[in-house]
Design a protein that fits this description.
- The complex is a heterodimer of chains A (1011) and B (411).
- In chain A, 27% of the residues lie in helices and 21% in strands.
- Chain A is of the alpha/beta class.
- In chain A, strands 23, 25, 26, 27, 28, 29, 30 and 31 form an eight-stranded mixed β-sheet that branches. A seven-stranded mixed β-sheet of chain A has the order 8-7-19-18-17-9-10, sandwiched between helices. Chain A has a four-stranded parallel β-sheet with strand order 14-13-12-15.
- Among the domains of chain A are: 166 residues, Dimethylsulfoxide Reductase, domain 2 (3-Layer(aba) Sandwich); 134 residues, Barwin-like endoglucanases; 302 residues, 2-Layer Sandwich (Alpha-Beta Plaits).
- With 411 residues, chain B is an all-alpha fold.
- Chain B is built from 18 helices and three strands.
- In chain B, a hairpin with a 4-residue loop joins β1 and β2.
- Classes of the chains: A alpha/beta (1011), B mainly alpha (411).
- Chains A and B meet through β3 and α29 of A and α13, β3, α15 and α18 of B.
């Protein structure tokens, strides 16, 4: 007999079992609902009566709801003296996560940290990047652990402490603490004490993305394992081989250093060459960017070294040939001419290559000039071999207890499945983490640690610099900072705060209170320099030349400025922050060059609503296979693929779960560059991207004005040609033909200047704007519909080989010309510009004239006001805005389960700025130039009966911009910085031809290309 | 008539007192007394009554007798730091210390000699009785108005009764004369039929007054004027701010430098109520107990109960601005120098506080139209010169410098 086919609607649910004839076997027990069914049917209440009751009831309810709800006001019982409700309090603190250090000023309101900004420390640090900015939201992450766990069920600290102490005492095997680099001197001291009590204790450093190659190279050339500090501001020529030093290399403070020497007004500018395979933030800012394959990097470095050797002492060494021989020669000459004031850096994970880089810098005399071996960086220390040997130890059953502090190896190790199996060999696994992450899931004990904004600490990121980490809020949950737990396990009856204070005071003669107030202090130590070991490096050179093999496709893993190592994956601000280059949100993807995509038939295309879709591929590296979407990236070297780490988290809260793919699976041998055994095959299906910018080029318009430094020196107005209109009066400036009446300017006239030469495109300002102005997160689906709410966006434009001049010369027709203009230049010629765009606060505002209810109006201080309570949501203004900076609230983004991000839970809402309205559905919003800060500062000045000082008011974006690209001020104040900026020959208005007369202006981008 | 006579008598007394007060004034001293008064009210009034010594709050009542009892030098030391004086073994100081259950007076080390001189001058001057008298006058005036209202009602009732009686008389007369009895309603209808223009006029009147009533009703939506909720503790502003004369800023101190005026935390209450355990009435004592219950304070031992689970006091908020409107107390109290009473009414006469003002946007704007900018503030200095030229010496009001722009309050 033929077997009957079975159909399933879902697993475990056979359709054949469903009774079809009579769905309800029994009568519905409706009548049993009422106490007495008989009286119910006998009652005289007719349908008419029911309707009467209903009508009356509705009316009564409506009337009753007219009464305003009772609002409670609950004051402190014992108000702390320092807190005045309604006024902010600032605390100095520090941030150290993902090997990024930043010295912070934390703004708190009514005891809640709500905004982070940089607490400028002298010389070093201060790099508050986008992730650091956003970390304030991670404090209010509802996914954080609420208390200690044992075998995933709630436990108490007391019992946990006793059990673990007895386990540690009876344990005869190794006790290992796996941790990223610890830069806290007191914590290291504490761990030493721990080691004296528990002899088997041992620390293994594991930086997720290590700088082992640089540390080892320095060990080889200087005899000591260390990382120097770099001064990009002192370098005249910068050559970088794949080091993304403006985004994620060693220190985000390199970006402000770099832009310091990129100011054309000074009369000198550094020149920056970048050799790289993917298009990085640093490459996008370079004067000359050369796309090369990763495997070729060795050849280029060797060639440069050989060329320099030839110039220096006429020695010649055998090196492989490269494509850009002439360019390397030219660079070598320039480097030699700028001896003692140049920098050559590399992002490679190859120790031998880094040794050559050291040799080059030594040859150029850069040590102690642009590279300091007396002030060292402590932020990286891990040795890759330590982790491999730890894994060996676990395999050999030598580890009895394994503690994870702020590390997540199950997520970040390439062979994580194997690692999970190995974990069974370890008897006691203890996790110190803020949330139940991929590793904590496998741990016996989970000790929730407090967020850094709830903890005490001291940090020593650079030689001589000490900074404080102080709590700005009481722990929200039953968590305990790591050091307190260690003290408890030492059996000591004191807390870490006292320990730290005693440690500090015994070590330094500084007063503790001053240290806590300032947030940092510099201990002046005798400078000791490292000396270069004089030995023959010939074998390294020959080894390197031999190591270059022909390779097919190559894969490079890269770090996105938004998500980093993936620690903050559950932070919706960062997920929605567009990638600096691709402008894609909520995703990672395989980047691929246009030529190569074309070759294997991969495409990106736009669907009818403008959103971007792309093909899917199977990526295979050393037999590990992953399906990921493809994003076609102009400027990328042919045959190289790029994939960002930090995505594909599985044990993370509601915002970050299963976003993108986990690229750590390919992070074999801790090398970001994978050159062997890589295959991609196209698979069926399409992927939906959420991309905030869908046009690549400026289409021949003067949106970002650009010039070269040589031209600028001849004429500072170069590249900034005045736009002229044809009129009956002849050629006139747009402002000479106006229909508008001028506004009165008699109080203040606020202006904002954006220096395109200082903007690296990093996106920290976007996050700061979110935090300051309660900008909602809308999620991937809405971003796809171009409904993102960013008040401030950073436009990225690629250059195009087609220009109007070229079309005229070559006789190319308009249709073909514009078609060609859409295509970005070839990788070799590609140039990238960034432009932050927010509301331009036009003084002749197109939006104001079309609002039917006067909800958007102009102030006499030069601001374009947006009144939410007046707005009826016609969206005429959005339509009429030439800059497309107005954002419409299509939905209620707070308290709405459809948008389940931080504004949908009570905890996440604690990050909201109480001075700014949370907008509701149906109203328009946009940049206000942080009017709450303007008003507050004006009030402070009036209270203190004085004038406003220049620079006193700072917009959130300006505060966040480390490179100082944004300046805000009053142009009626003749001595202000902004008045000087406005007079600059580089200043121009965006889309000047419309004569909108914005209060925001830009300064031309100046590159220092060699001519 | 009696009222008129009594109010006349009051005003006469008032006038006499004012004249007497003015005559009594030493002109070179006047500034000091005013300064002293404000210093006294914000720093001393919470513990000291200005008057006979027996009238104790926490400390003794203060009057010019203190100058006989203590030397000026001693007073300086005592006010600046009394505990130092006690420790130094000063006899008089220890005497007071013992008398007041070893409670220490708050130290004011930041007072300058001038400040203390001013306060002492004010104490010497004694309480000004004008304020009290004015209060009484206003109370009387209020009584007047209620009385005149009852009079009006009585008159209206009389008229209505008269009309009914007259109608009845008319009908009786008609029946007596044998004419057909027409009801009032019928006669009205007959009149209306012959006067169609009246119908038109009346309907217009009805429609328009309907619109007016509707408009007024709608404009009251969300306006909570006179909102007077019951509070968890029957705190009387009349007693504290009125009778005791405690300065508003003593408890609502953040009004001067923050956006919120701030509901005082319970520890501010305890500044006085550590020692004042009894109210004027039995109910008052019960209400004071509520503060102790919240904080866990034992008035018998004058100490806080260790390990007590404190219960915050849940006051009911009276003034509720919508979230979309930004209001800053410091801007108005500190910079503009607006008196609290301007918006909050005579709080010092309210046993139970209610919302005095409408708090509507129109109400805000009106004030911004009328209020002049304090051009003496250095913030406005050179701006003001421009304005003089521009507005030809007109008074500069808030709205002239952008005080009516939307996003000054809505952001």
């Amino acid at each position: 007999m033929k077997e009957e086919k079975k159909y399933y609607t879902s697993l475990g649910h056979e359709t054949s079992n469903v009774e079809r004839s009579n769905e309800f076997h029994e009568k519905l027990p409706l009548e049993a609902m009422y106490e007495n069914a008989d009286t119910l049917s006998a009652s005289s209440t007719s349908r008419r009566d029911f309707l009467k009751f209903l009508g009356f009831g509705t009316l009564a309810a409506t009337l009753a709801s007219c009464e305003a709800p009772v609002v409670k006001s609950i004051p402190y019982l014992n108000k702390p003296e320092s807190i005045t409700p309604g006024n902010p309090l600032y605390y100095a603190s520090s941030y150290f996560s993902e090997n990024v250090f930043a010295s912070l000023l934390v703004k708190t309101r009514e005891g809640r940290p709500i905004l982070l900004s940089s607490n400028k420390t002298p010389e070093h640090g201060g790099g508050v990047n986008a992730r650091c900015q956003a970390s304030v939201l991670s404090l209010y992450d509802s996914n954080r652990l609420k208390g200690p766990l044992k075998n995933k069920s709630d436990y108490s600290w007391d019992k946990l402490d006793l059990e673990i102490m007895s386990l540690l005492n009876t344990n005869s095997k190794k006790i290992v603490l796996l941790t990223p680099t610890i830069i806290s001197p007191s914590t290291l001291n504490l761990l030493n004490e721990f080691k004296t009590k528990y002899k088997k204790f041992q620390i293994v450093n594991y930086d997720t993305v290590s700088k082992d190659s640089m540390l080892s190279a320095n060990e080889y050339t200087f005899g000591k394992r260390f990382l120097p500090t770099y001064s990009f501001d002192k370098a005249e020529i910068i050559v970088s081989f794949g080091a993304d030093f403006l985004s994620d290399w060693i220190d985000p403070a390199h970006a402000p250093q770099y832009t310091k020497n990129r100011n054309p007004e000074k009369g000198t500018m550094s020149r920056h060459y970048q050799f790289e395979s993917l298009l990085s933030v640093t490459g996008a800012n370079a004067d000359k960017r050369v796309p090369i394959k990763n495997s070729q990097q060795i050849n280029y470095v060797l060639n440069l070294y050989a060329e320099l050797l030839r110039i220096a002492n006429g020695k010649s060494i055998n090196v492989p040939k490269v494509k850009h021989k002439a360019l390397i020669k030219d660079i070598a000459n320039q480097l030699w001419n700028s001896k003692n004031a140049s920098l050559v850096v590399s992002g490679s994970d190859n120790t031998n290559l880094q040794i050559i880089i050291n040799l080059i810098n030594k040859l150029l005399g850069n040590y102690e000039n642009t590279i300091s071996t007396s002030v060292l960086s402590n932020v990286y220390s891990s040795k890759n071999s330590d982790i491999t040997s730890l894994i060996e130890d676990i395999k050999n059953n030598q580890v009895g207890a394994l503690m994870f502090l702020n590390t997540n190896p199950v997520y970040t190790l390439p062979n994580s499945k194997e690692f999970v199996k190995l974990l069974e060999n370890v008897e006691t696994k203890i996790s110190f983490s803020e949330s139940l992450d991929e590793t904590a899931v496998y741990c016996d004990y989970v000790c929730p640690i407090s967020n850094y904004l709830e903890s005490w600490g001291d940090l020593n990121p650079y030689t001589g610099l000490y900074t404080i980490q102080q709590p700005t809020i009481s722990p929200l949950f039953n968590s305990r900072q790591f050091q307190d737990t260690i003290l408890a396990w030492l059996g000591e009856n004191k807390n870490y705060y006292n320990y730290l204070k005693v440690f500090f005071e015994s070590k330094f003669s500084k007063t503790w209170n001053q240290f806590v107030h300032d947030g940092f202090f510099i201990s002046k130590q005798k400078k000791s320099y490292m000396s270069f070991i004089d030995k023959s490096y010939d074998d390294i050179i020959s080894n390197l030349s031999k190591s270059v093999t022909k390779s097919g496709i190559e894969l490079e893993l890269y770090i996105k400025g938004s998500l980093g190592y993936g620690v903050h994956a559950n932070n919706p601000w960062l997920q929605e922050l567009p990638d600096v280059i691709s402008k894609v949100t909520w995703d990672n993807y395989l980047t691929i060059s246009p030529e190569y995509a074309n070759e294997i038939g991969l495409k990106n295309w736009h669907v009818s609503n403008g959103a971007l879709d792309g093909h899917l591929v199977d990526l295979e590296v050393n037999n590990t296979k992953l399906t990921c979407p493809v994003y076609i990236q102009p400027g990328q070297e042919n045959g190289v693929l790029g994939l960002a780490i930090g995505y594909g988290r599985t044990e993370v809260g509601k915002s970050g779960k299963n976003i993108g793919v986990n690229a750590y699976q390919f992070y074999n041998n801790f090398d970001k560059q994978q050159n062997q055994n890589i295959k991609i095959t196209k698979v069926d299906g399409t992927h939906e991207f959420a991309c905030t910018q869908n046009s690549h080029t400026m289409m021949g318009r003067n949106i970002v004005k650009e010039t070269n430094f040589s031209e600028y020196l001849k004429n500072p107005k170069s590249g900034n040609k005045q736009f002229l209109l044809h009129s009956h009066k002849g050629h006139v400036k747009p402002e000479d033909l106006t229909l508008w009446q001028e506004h009165e300017r008699d109080v203040h006239f606020w202006n904002l200047s954006i220096d395109l030469n200082s903007c690296t495109g990093c996106g920290a300002c976007v996050i700061a704007c979110h935090a300051e102005n309660n900008v909602p997160v809308v999620g991937k689906e809405e971003v796809r519909k171009n409904r993102d709410m960013h008040w401030l966006r950073i436009d990225r434009y690629y250059s195009s080989d087609m220009t109007k001049e070229r079309a005229r010369e070559e006789g190319i027709g308009a249709v073909k010309m514009y078609k060609q203009m859409e295509v970005p230049s070839s990788a070799e010629n590609l140039e990238v510009v960034f432009q932050p765009v927010m509301c331009q606060h036009c003084n002749h505002a197109p939006c104001e004239t079309v609002c039917p209810v006067a909800a958007t109006t102009h102030s006499r201080e030069g601001l374009n006001h947006m009144t939410y309570n007046r707005c009826i949501g016609t969206r005429y203004c959005m339509n009429n805005c030439p800059y497309k900076v107005r954002r419409f609230n299509w939905f209620n983004y707070s308290d709405n389960d459809q948008f389940d991000y931080h504004m949908n839970d009570d905890l996440g809402k604690m990050v909201l700025n109480p001075d700014v309205t949370v907008r509701s559905r149906g109203v328009m919003e946009k940049c206000t130039m942080c009017i709450q800060n303007i008003q507050q500062t004006k009030l402070d000045a009036k209270k203190e009966r004085r004038k406003i000082k220049d620079g006193e008011i700072k917009c959130a974006c300006e505060k966040a911009c480390d490179t100082g690209a944004i300046t805000f001020g009053d142009v009626l104040d003749k001595d202000s910085r902004i008045s000087a900026e406005k007079k600059s020959p580089r200043a121009y208005y965006l889309i000047e031809e419309l004569n909108t007369q914005p209060s925001v202006f830009y300064k031309t981008k100046v590159r220092n290309k060699k001519v | 008539m009696k009222h008129i006579i009594s109010s006349f008598l009051y005003s006469l007394r008032c006038l006499v007192l004012v004249v007497a007060f003015l005559l009594n004034l030493n002109p070179s001293f006047s500034q000091d007394v005013a300064m002293g008064e404000s210093l006294f009210k914000s720093n001393c009034a919470s513990c000291h009554y200005l008057g006979p010594e027996e009238k104790k709050l926490i400390g003794p009542g203060l009057n010019d007798e203190i100058f006989e009892e203590y030397s000026l030098d001693w007073l300086y030391k005592w006010i600046r730091n009394s505990s130092e004086l006690i420790e130094s073994g000063d006899k008089q100081a220890i005497e007071i210390y013992e008398e007041y259950n070893k409670s220490v007076m708050t130290a004011f080390p930041y007072f300058s000699d001038d400040d203390i001189d001013n306060i002492l001058a004010y104490i010497k001057e004694g309480p000004s009785e004008i304020a009290e008298i004015v209060n009484e006058v206003s109370v009387v005036a209020e009584g007047d108005s209620t009385n005149s209202n009852t009079l009006l009602y009585i008159v209206i009732c009389l008229i209505i009764i008269n009309i009914i009686i007259l109608g009845y008389v008319k009908n009786t007369l008609k029946t007596a004369s044998g004419e057909e009895n027409v009801s009032v309603l019928q006669s009205c209808l007959i009149w209306l039929r012959s006067n169609p223009s009246f119908i038109v006029f009346a309907s217009i009147l009805i429609v328009f007054s309907g619109i007016k009533v509707g408009w007024d009703a709608l404009s009251k939506v969300g306006v909570a004027q006179n909102y007077q909720p019951e509070q968890p503790i029957a705190f009387s502003h009349k007693l504290h701010a009125g009778e005791q004369g405690i300065d508003c800023n003593y408890c609502h101190h953040s009004a001067r430098d923050s956006k919120h005026s701030g509901i005082p935390s319970a520890n501010v209450c305890m500044n006085c109520h550590t020692y004042i355990n009894e109210g004027q009435t039995e109910e008052g004592t019960k209400e004071i107990q509520k503060i102790y219950a919240a904080l866990g304070f034992d008035p018998n031992t004058k100490s806080y109960i260790p390990g007590y689970e404190q219960k915050p006091i849940e006051w009911v908020r009276i003034h509720n601005l919508p979230d979309l409107a930004y209001f800053n107390h410091a801007q108005h109290v500190n910079v503009a120098g607006i008196e609290c009473e301007t918006c909050h009414g005579s709080i010092d006469e309210m046993d139970e506080v209610y919302q005095y003002s409408k708090l509507t946007m129109g109400w805000c704007i009106n004030c911004h139209r009328e209020t002049e900018v304090d051009v003496d503030n250095p913030y406005y200095h050179d701006l003001h010169e421009n304005w003089i030229d521009k507005y030809h010496g007109e008074d500069i009001t808030v709205d002239m410098i952008g005080g009516r722009e939307c996003a000054k309050c809505h952001y």
